[in-house]
């Protein structure tokens, strides 16, 4: 799959580009609803012998338009590189990432269709029932035939629901913020994971009998709520079960500011993971983080956390 970044205004004309079926949306999380939209576009592109394209935007419109969220503060279920890998795995030929800024946001629905669908040679558009485009999202799948003037086919995908409610990035973000990681797999159609690298920590873990791999994420992931989780950690070579703490270690630090740390204690592992690229998968929440009055209490609690996580993995099989 090729990834192409486009900045407004681009200079392409329809004749410069290969014809494409385009799936449109932001697609944070590439959840099961997004997968339905993208798979349908791939299927249609194959049937017509044209390119299967996903058109997305970056950064998130909220980071550009909302006064309370800056681009630096923006956190994603799947930051761009992760989103790209998931979209690639769905069989897409090209991912077009349109740089989202105030100029792009202020395009009229007609200008969006002209410059980003027709000029980029979309022959068909696939999007969900609630996709919107153009200034203030005024363009919808209902207005698309009018703006496209007969130059496009379109297919609207019905709402994909789970437990009677729309599967959406917003719903998934709320569950992550609540730490409800066990509820995510049916919505994502995969486990909830992040990619990072093992960095060195304060080296205290080994002295208390629970060495931990500190996970550094160069991509802006939305982390699950502060607390302790049953997790698996994968390297290129192996997969381990363990327990993770997302937090500020209040037993040792009185100030809780900045990003929390993510550290993982692995079962049945002794060795060095420093510098390793890893995937952390969040399976179940165990508890919140506690300010213990001493190291002994903390050790007893982590020991219990390990037993809780092992029981979870045994039951899960
Ligand atoms: C499973 C697990 C649970 C933890 N729970 C807490 C906690 O409730 N409160 C706390 O202050 N620190 C908690 N920690 C963090 C430990 O304090 C930390 O691992 C230790 O201080 C080592 O830190 P270092 O790797 O930065 O040296 C937990 C760590 C793990 C692995
Ligand atoms: N549950 C769903 N069923 C069908 N289509 C969906 C569903 N969720 C999103 N889509 C479609 O997928 C594309 C990407 O949607 P978008 O990125 O806005 O996701 P979202 O999950 O609705 O996010 P948000 O919660 O931020 O509104 C759009 O075309 C949208 O209409």
Q: Which helices and strands, and how do they pair?
A:
Layout: E1 2-6, E2 20-24, H1 32-48, E3 51-58, H2 61-65, H3 80-89, E4 94-99, H4 102-105, H5 109-118, E5 122-128, E6 132-133, E7 139-140, H6 144-148, E8 153-157, E9 161-162, E10 165-166, H7 169-178, H8 185-188, E11 192-199, E12 213-216, E13 227-234, E14 239-247, E15 261-266, E16 277-287, H9 295-316
Parallel strand pairs: 1-4, 2-3, 2-5, 3-4, 5-8
Antiparallel strand pairs: 6-7, 9-10, 11-12, 11-16, 12-15, 13-14, 13-16, 14-15
The chain binds flavin mononucleotide (FMN) and adenosine-5'-triphosphate (ATP).
Catalytic activity: riboflavin + ATP = FMN + ADP + H(+); FMN + ATP + H(+) = FAD + diphosphate
Organism: Salsuginibacillus halophilus
Family: Belongs to the ribF family.
Please describe the structure with a list of short key phrases separated by commas or semicolons:
Rossmann fold, EC 2.7.7.2, FMN, kinase, Elongation Factor Tu (Ef-tu), domain 3, 317 residues, alpha/beta, binds adenosine-5'-triphosphate, 2 domains, multifunctional enzyme, 9 helices, binds flavin mononucleotide, 6-stranded parallel β-sheet
Structural account:
The chain has 317 residues and is of the alpha/beta class. The protein has two domains: 2-166, Rossmann fold (3-Layer(aba) Sandwich), CATH 3.40.50.620; 191-316, Elongation Factor Tu (Ef-tu), domain 3 (Beta Barrel). Helices cover 27% and strands 28% of the residues. The protein has nine helices and 16 strands. The protein has helices spanning 32-48, 61-65, 80-89, 102-105, 109-118, 144-148, 169-178, 185-188, 295-316, and strands at 2-6, 20-24, 51-58, 94-99, 122-128, 132-133, 139-140, 153-157, 161-162, 165-166, 192-199, 213-216, 227-234, 239-247, 261-266, 277-287. It has a six-stranded parallel sheet with strand order 1-4-3-2-5-8, with helices on both faces. Strands 11-12-15-14-13-16 form a six-stranded antiparallel beta barrel. A hairpin with a 2-residue loop joins strand 9 (161-162) and strand 10. It is elongated. It starts with a strand and ends with a helix. It binds flavin mononucleotide and adenosine-5'-triphosphate (ATP). Flavin mononucleotide is lined by residues 201-205, 210, 212, 214, 228, 243, 245, 249-252, 263, 265, 289-290, 292, 298, 302, 305. Pathway: Cofactor biosynthesis; FMN biosynthesis; FMN from riboflavin (ATP route): step 1/1; Cofactor biosynthesis; FAD biosynthesis; FAD from FMN: step 1/1. Keywords: ATP-binding, FAD, Flavoprotein, FMN, Kinase, Multifunctional enzyme, Nucleotide-binding, Nucleotidyltransferase, Transferase. One of its GO terms (biological process) is FAD biosynthetic process. It is an enzyme of class 2 (transferase). Pfam families: FAD_syn, Flavokinase.
């Amino acid at each position: 799959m090729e990834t192409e970044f486009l900045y407004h205004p681009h200079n392409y004309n329809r004749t410069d580009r290969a014809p494409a079926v385009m799936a449109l949306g932001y697609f944070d999380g590439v959840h099961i609803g997004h997968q339905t939209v993208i798979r349908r576009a791939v299927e249609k592109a194959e049937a017509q012998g044209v390119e299967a394209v996903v058109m997305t935007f970056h950064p998130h419109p909220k980071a550009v338009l909302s006064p309370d969220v800056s681009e630096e503060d923006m956190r994603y279920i799947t930051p761009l590189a992760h989103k790209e890998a998931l979209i690639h795995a769905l069989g897409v030929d090209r991912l077009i990432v349109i740089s989202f800024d105030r100029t792009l946001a202020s395009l009229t629905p007609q200008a969006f269709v002209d410059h980003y669908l027709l000029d980029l040679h979309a022959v068909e558009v696939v999007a969900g029932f609630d996709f919107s485009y153009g200034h203030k999202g005024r363009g919808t799948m209902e207005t698309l035939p009018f703006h496209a003037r007969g130059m496009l086919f379109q297919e609207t995908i019905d709402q994909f629901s789970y437990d009677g409610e729309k599967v959406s990035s917003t719903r998934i973000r709320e569950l992550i913020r609540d730490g409800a990681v066990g509820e995510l797999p049916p919505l994502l159609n995969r486990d909830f994971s992040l990619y990072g690298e093992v960095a060195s920590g304060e080296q205290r873990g080994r002295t208390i009998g629970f060495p931990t791999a500190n996970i550094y994420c160069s991509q802006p992931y939305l982390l699950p709520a502060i607390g302790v989780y049953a997790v698996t950690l994968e390297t290129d070579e192996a997969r381990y079960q363990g327990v993770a703490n997302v937090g500020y270690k209040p037993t040792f630090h009185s100030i809780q500011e900045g990003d929390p740390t993510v550290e993982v204690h692995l079962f049945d592992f002794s060795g060095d993971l420093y510098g390793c690229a890893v995937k952390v998968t969040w399976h179940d929440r165990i508890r919140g983080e506690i300010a213990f009055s001493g190291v002994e209490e903390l050790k007893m609690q982590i020991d219990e956390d390990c037993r809780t996580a092992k029981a979870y993995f045994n039951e899960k099989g």
